Each structure stands twice: as C-alpha cells, then as structure tokens.
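Homework help board

Subject: predicted structure for assignment chain

Our instructor gave us this sequence and asked us to write out the predicted structure in token form, then describe one feature. I got the tokens but I'm not sure how to describe them. Can anyone check?
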Amino acid sequence: MKGGIFRPRDRPGVKPLGTVFRNDPFLVLIDRERGEQVLTTKEERYDHAIALQQGGDLESAIRELESLARDFPDYALAYAALSVFYSRLGRHEEAIQAAERVCELEPEDPFSFVALSLICQKAGQLARAEMALMEARRAQFEAWRRAQKASENEP
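My token output:
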C-alpha cells in the first residue's frame, strides 16, 4: 500500500469495468482523476483500517477509524476497534471514551461492557472497571430474561 490507499494490482483477473475494477473479494471503485480507490461503505472503510493496523500502521488505522466514526457516529464496530487501538498506545482516556460509546450503541451486548471493564482495568481505573462488569452482568441477565419470555410465548 502506498500512502494508505489500496490500488488495483496488475494481476490476471483484474479487469476494468468502466469506472470499476473487479478485484478478488469485492468491487473496487476507482477515482479516475487520482487513480485511487474510493471506499464506498463503512464496512470497506473499516476493513481498510484493520488492514492498516495489521500491516503495522496503527496511527493510520486510528486516523481512518476516527474519520469513520465522525462520518458514521452510530457504527459501534469503529468505536470498538478505536478503544482497543487507543489502549495499545496507552491513550487510556480515549480508549475508555470509545468503549463507553460502544456500550451506548450496544446496551444489550454484555461483551461491550466486558471490553470496557478490561480497558478500564488496564488504565488503572478499577472502580470504573467494576461498574462496567456489573453492567455486563445486567445485560447478560436481561438477555436471559428476554429468552425466557420468548420461550414462554411459544406454542
């Protein structure tokens, strides 16, 4: 990758289709003027950020995820990745804020609260970690209770 942008590779099987190239796993839109890939969905942008991180460019991955979170403020997956990446860099308060946003967006998901608890523990904020763990237990209980009610209502 050059400059954090995917470019179509010269390989057999990569064929131009107007302004689109057919590449292995998905369609890639190309800005003809700049010759750069245009990431069209939040999922593609997220995948791009993860590819940057896996390629060792954590700072660029964070910038891409921050941009994604600004553009799609209800996309929990972007905040979840940000919380982990911020934590890896020791940016604990930002990691906690991102993890709390995931919990706001996914209040019924116990794992979101467990992740928040772990990030708070790593940041040395044990009271906050315990509160998050209690919320995880509450969310887990609520999920169990909903499942029980659903099974009672089945014929």
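Reply (TA_rk): Your tokens look well-formed. For the description, you could write something like this. Helices lie at 42-54, 58-71, 76-88, 92-105, 110-122, 126-153. That's the kind of observation they're looking for.
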